[in-house]
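Q&A log
Question type: sequence-to-structure
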Amino acid sequence: MTARPPAVAPETAEDRISVASNWRLVWWRFRKHRLALLSALVLLALYGVVLFPDFVSTQDPEATTLAWPSFRCSASTSSTARA
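Response status: OK
Response body:
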């Protein structure tokens, strides 16, 4: 079995750019930017945490109490603070 030559001559880089869609051009440029790729990975990880909170959480949300701690000042401390 012999390899057949390609039916069409290989395209140059200019030919690929001229016929590429806008999304493809944006993707090619985005891929070159390392910080953008890292940021996209971090964003995807955060979306994963939001979509699967039961897998990531360490506490049972039903076991926690809803009572807020009381931070009210007593009358003696508030009167000394005003003096």
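Response note: The CA atoms of residues 59 and 70 lie 23 Å apart.
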